[in-house]
Specification:
seven-stranded mixed β-sheet; about 30% helix; alpha/beta; disordered N terminus
Length: about 280
């Protein structure tokens, strides 16, 4: 019998935070070649697993989460090597704890999410480092940039923003607004990294083995990667990473055909960069 604290009832999209948490808690044993060695996930999961919800057991989803975790982590680490003491913001942090991997003694990190998530997070993950803070965030609000206290001028030091398992639940116009704000406000050299599915996934939340139990729905997917730079002229697609790369020979065989017929990967990470501008 668990002695953890009873989990608060979260609304549909916030409740999906259980999926990456469970994957990082158990995935290392299933896919040792993709191990992330999360020191917090299992303990946090143990405290909330008495809420009556089944834990995700879909192997493909677990692989995807481990793969994207490793990629988010490595991209943030690369950014901090280039910009010592830089700021990293996890927009829609859920119960993830990336600071365990990113704390180099100088980095500053903000974990941000909806109030209902942060209330749960404060109970489960006490924060004691002065370079790590929590902020309330609603990415659908037009002032989300200000609420995160991000740079007011483009000539400021660049920042690294990432959002994991979030944008696909927003409406297309809301995603476009987020990208446009980043393009308009971010200092040159700033990065925005996120995961996105292709257009075929839209409206198919009930068919996803792990997501269907939450009641959340996929509202956004892309048809062409060029869509990601259209919201603002300063946006440049720096890199794309196929999340399912390496999962098995079937994927290796069929991935090129998927790209040919669909125009984009079924599921991938995208890194957008804010380019130079003479404007302030």
């Amino acid at each position: 019998m668990t002695t953890g604290k009873p989990a608060r009832l979260l609304s549909a999209v916030p409740s999906t935070l259980r999926i990456p948490l469970a994957a990082r808690a158990s995935g290392d044993a299933i896919f040792p070649q993709m191990a992330v060695r999360d020191a917090y996930a299992a303990g946090i999961l143990e405290q909330i697993r008495d809420d009556g919800h089944a834990l995700p057991e879909d192997r493909t989803t677990i692989y995807c989460i481990l793969s994207r975790t490793r990629r988010f982590r490595s991209l943030a680490q690369d950014f901090l090597k280039e910009h010592p003491g830089g700021r990293v913001v996890n927009m829609g942090c859920g119960l993830s704890h990336y600071f365990q991997w990113l704390d180099d003694g100088k980095a500053r990190m903000t974990d941000a999410d909806l109030p209902e998530v942060l209330e749960l997070r404060r109970d489960l993950i006490p924060e004691i480092n002065e370079r790590h803070d929590l902020r309330e965030l609603d990415l659908t609000a037009p002032d989300w940039w200000e609420r995160l206290d991000l740079p007011r001028k483009r000539r400021a030091a660049p920042v690294f923003l990432f959002t994991e398992g979030v944008l696909m639940y927003l409406k297309p116009e809301q995603v476009q607004a987020v990208l446009a704000t980043f393009g308009e406000r971010a200092p040159a050299g700033s990065m925005l990294v996120f995961d996105a599915m292709c257009w075929l996934g839209v409206g198919r939340g009930r068919q996803h083995p792990s997501v269907r139990a939450t009641g959340a729905e996929f509202n956004w997917g892309i048809r062409r990667s060029s869509e990601l730079t259209q919201p603002h002229r300063r946006l440049r697609l720096a890199s794309t990473y196929r999340v399912l790369e390496g999962i098995g020979p079937a994927y290796t065989l069929f991935a090129p055909m998927v790209m040919l017929f669909l125009g984009v990967s079924l599921y991938a990470l995208y890194a957008l960069e804010a380019t130079d501008s003479v404007d302030t």
